[in-house]
Amino acid sequence: MSDTLFNEFSEGIRNGEIVPYLGPGVLRGVTDQISGEPVPATSDELIMALNRGQPMAPRLMYEFPRAAMHVELKRGRSAVNRFLTETYGERQWTRSPLHRMLADLQAPYVIDINRDTQLQDRYADRAHLLILGTARIGGTDYRYKLYHYGGHAYSEIAAETADPTLPVLFKPMGSPLPEPSYIASDADYVDYITELMGGFAIPGFLKARRRGLRYLLVGMRLTRDTERMVLSDLMHGHDEGTAGWALIPEPTTKEVRFCTRQDIEIIEADADDLLAALAAHTASEA
User: Fold this and answer.
1) Distance between CA 107 and CA 213 in Å, rounded?
2) Potential cystine with 188: which of 135, 202, 231, 243 (Cβ 3.0-4.6 Å)?
3) How many alpha carbons fall within 13 Å on the CB side of residue 222?
4) Is omega for the bond preceding 164 within 30 degrees of 0, making it cis?
5) Alpha carbon 101 to chain centroid distance?
6) Residue 268 CB coordination number (10 Å)
7) What pTM did the predictor assign?
8) Residue 221 C-alpha from the chain's centroid
9) In this predicted model, what pLDDT tens digit does every residue of 6-24 receive, in sequence order?
């Protein structure tokens, strides 16, 4: 990763022109503070944790939403939601240095497809807006919940009352905080992606704010259709000519084709490389 490109990332993240888009790889190295077990973040890791440490049938191991749908059909949707809340809301995990670095840069807009609370924890010292994805709920056309955090607690608000100048943490796949809300099973994704394509999963102020932005994909592998569909719609309205960059070590042919179609430049690096470069740049500015 060249110094010139890194400087562009650092300044772009700081001024909000480049949006960090965080995937499971950013949680590598995070462990349970008591047991030392690594946090389940990737699709395979989540499936194994959901099935009490055992692999599931090959067709279910394809991706987590399929395995979650299987469990939902057998034990109910609440079983999947309870697993995610216990995993990310009730266990104590070590802190991710990349999330701290993004908070130190005061990134004004971050998309995080993981379901943990690391990003929220790092922004707990400042006012911000939180958007959680929802699915299969009645009484509303929208597929998100919007919260304002004033420094002490979250309060749910209407999009019309949001202060668009505040930092925005967008967690489309949900979080256990302030109240559990998840996109997990195939049925959840079908509903959420349908409404995302229709414009009902993103607040209006954010649709206006994201025009002309570019994205930096970190810890993302782009081999699964569900994650690629979510990504494509969340990047709608990106900077003309380039959507941004994806840090992917040893990209597959499928990933290269997808990124080419989406105007995403692949950089053969990972989250650790970005963290090291961010830390070095921060130190040079001190």
Assistant:
1) 13
2) 135
3) 30
4) no
5) 16
6) 12
7) 0.96
8) 12
9) 788 989 999 999 999 999 9
Beta pairing partners, 154: 149
SS3 of the chain: the string is CCHHHHHHHHHHHHHCCEEEEECHHHHCCCEECCCCCECCCCHHHHHHHHCCCCCCCCCCCCCHHHHHHHHHHHHCHHHHHHHHHHHHHCCCECCCHHHHHHHHCCCCEEEECCCCCHHHHHCCCCCEEEEEECCCCCCCCCCEEEEEECCCCEEECCHHHCCCCCCEEEECCEECCCCCEECCCHHHHHHHHHHHHCCCCCCHHHHHHCCCCEEEEECCCCCCHHHHHHHHHHCCCCCCCCCEEEECCCCCHHHHHHHHHCCEEEECCCHHHHHHHHHHHHHHHC
**Tokens (6 digits) for 42:** 């990737």
- Relative to beta strand 168-171, strand 109-112 is parallel
Q: Are 20 and 235 in contact (CB under 8 A)?
A: no
The span from the CA of 20 to the CA of 78, in Å, is: 31
Comparing CA positions, the residue from 278, 211, 216, 225 lying closest to residue 247 is 216
Domains of the chain: 3-34+92-114+199-285 (3.40.50)
Nearest alpha carbon to residue 95 among 111, 115, 119, 114: 119
